[in-house]
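quick one before i forget lol
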Amino acid sequence: MLQVEGRKLLLEDVWGARDAGADHWTERYHAYENLYYQLLNSELKTPPLEDLSKVQDVVDLVKLVKSSFIKSDTIGAALDAIEQKGFSWLNDPDERALEHCLEFATRLWLFTRPCLRNRDDRLKNAIKECFRPRSCQRQNSSVGETSYRLSEDFSARNLERRGGFRIDWTSELVEHLTCPDKKTILVFRHARTLQDYQRREVEKSIYPENLLLEVDRTIGLLFPLHKKGAEKKLRMLSKKQKADVEANLLDDEIEDFQRHQLSSYPIYQQRLLLIQQRYDNTKPSRPKQWWYDRRRRLEWAGLWIAVMVFILTLVTVATTIMQVYAAFHLR
């Protein structure tokens, strides 16, 4: 576990957190600490980087990579800058080790693994390449996205209770709203940092246009805060799942009818459409789902009427048996 000073250093110098020593970060920082150790432990398995263990060393590396992004360096220039820096922890810095350094710093800061295939490509393009249409943007679809609406009950709560889905959290931005299997949906867990990135030109210019805004809106779609008690429940969920999505709100100009309009999400509409279609095709398989899933009201009412009749029948039979027993044995 990170010490307070190390935690504050990471939050402020890697993610640009404001007031990193404030109380509200006490619950929020777990999502970032987990990401830090996850990436660090992964890279420590690479011999040239096995001595990368101090927070200050990590911060210095991220700062160097940030400067390369700001200068619009090529991938090759960024790798050369890391090599020329002469980090004491970087042993035998061959090209693969330098790429590991660049990947580590970029994933920690931007939550994205850069595409490093072409050394002559710009670093910013190496990030944008990860979000090409094959990754998350819409492709040709038989559905008219301009008129298609998501169901009014489309939310994480209903997807789990009615559809039997499971919400898992990810620190890889490119995985947001992907489905590793038919019943699992991955949701990005560092949403509040992306909200800050929207207000900073350096980070905002690196991602594809409107990507950060749309991630924010899709999380607001899954976890709406306009209902009574929703903010408290989301705060508890964030704490339990070590996710930083507590303060997410849709923009004021996005009204309810637009919130469920698929065309409001041009980047993520294909993923949302897939989730909606799978949700529509689900049928209850557990008692809890049978109780909460009231999308087919006639079937739901018929089932529970049958359950009540069955229970009443059992009560009647049990009462009759007791009466007969009492009549013969309790005279």
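fyi Residues 12 and 18 are 7 Å apart (CA to CA).
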